[in-house]
Amino acid sequence: MAGKVILKKQAEKRLRWSHPWIFAGEIAKEQVQEGPGAIVDVLNSAGKFWGRGYWNPQSQIRVRLLTRKEEPVDEGFFFQRLRQCWHYRQQIGYTENCRLVFAEADQLPGLIVDKFGDYLVLQTLALGMDRWKPAIVHALEQLLQPAGIYERNDAPVRELEGLPLTKGFLSKPFPTTFQIRENNLRFWVDVANGQKTGYFLDQRLNRLAIAPFVRDAEILEAFCYTGSFTCHAAAFGAKHITAIDASADALQLAQQNAELNGVSPSCTFLEANAFDVLKQWAGEKRSFDVVMLDPPAFAKSRQQIQSAITGYKEINLRALKMIRPGGFLITSSCTNLVPAPLFLEIIQQAAADARRQIRQVLFHTQPPDHPIVWTIESTAYLKFLIVQVQ
Ligand code: SAH
Prior knowledge:
The protein is α/β, with parallel strands linked by helices. The protein has three domains: 3-67, Roll (Archaeosine Trna-guanine Transglycosylase, Chain: A, domain 4), CATH 2.30.130; 75-174, Transcription Regulator spoIIAA (2-Layer Sandwich); 195-389, Rossmann fold, CATH 3.40.50.150. Helices cover 29% and strands 31% of the residues. It has a seven-stranded mixed sheet, sandwiched between helices. Helix 2 (75-91) packs across helix 4 (133-144), helix 9 (274-283) packs parallel to helix 10 (305-322) and helix 10 crosses helix 11 (340-354). The chain binds S-adenosyl-L-homocysteine.
């Protein structure tokens, strides 16, 4: 072992609930011989083995535990963990496209791997995990024989770990824009330049769930990205969808996705700031049968929670004002710092301010390839709500 870290007594209570992060302030003493990213043993205040994980003195999250057992952390360890990840996705039938590794929820802190058909897209978001990238790539090649692996390590959270932002091939090069299938539709995915890993797999079941609410509807969708909800709505018989996004690149793919699925006659894509459009159109008293909202995360730190609440309230309030009586608001939040009860309260307040009565008709979270560990709050992030509006 490259060293040891001894916990303060107070830290043990929180950690007992099997949270894998140990913050700088929870450590009484550190004796580490190697540099950042080293594997260390964590001991409790009585000097007893607590767990083993990687250490980063540059991060507030000083240790991320990989195991509570006294087992070697080596290439074989990562191979076994990744094998369990793949086994579970096979078990639940999420094999074609899936989140193959969901970080802390798969006991691989800081590692995300999305599978899109024969290709894998990987993010190592913590320094300790980044050091194991060659072993991870090797294990993924052994387990899945992918046609290619791409790293999207341009995520800004890496800077908190002292890691550079980078992206590129971890296998031989391949065309990074390709098609995937989802729910009998087809979508272009751009894994090199799209957002995050290129496509949001977490809304797969929720896109299916809109079917009963969109038939013959006139729909406004804000934050449409590459048009996945739009194409689903059109395929489910919506009359027309006006879909807005601020990204011209996303909208170009959205247009191509509508064409690919033969639904472009019922879709109009608009490049604009959704906040501005919602404000203006609500002011003009425009109306729709259904409004769909799926904005990016509004808070990345606790300091931003209040502005996230304000943001969610504003867009949902304006959307509610535009929905015809009997219509539906389909609204999402992917901010893990806004937990489900708070999100529902924001929607209720928005409805009260809009002077509209609502009733919940459906509430979902993440699909089973994004499992939630109740003791690790950050693993529960997606809220997907449909309310009927009177
Ligand atoms: N619903 C999409 C995912 C949306 S991701 C899907 O199912 O795939 C959030 C999207 O919001 C991104 O495409 C981003 O470009 C867009 N976005 C961010 N801020 C915006 C703004 N102010 N106005 C419009 N779009 C915005």
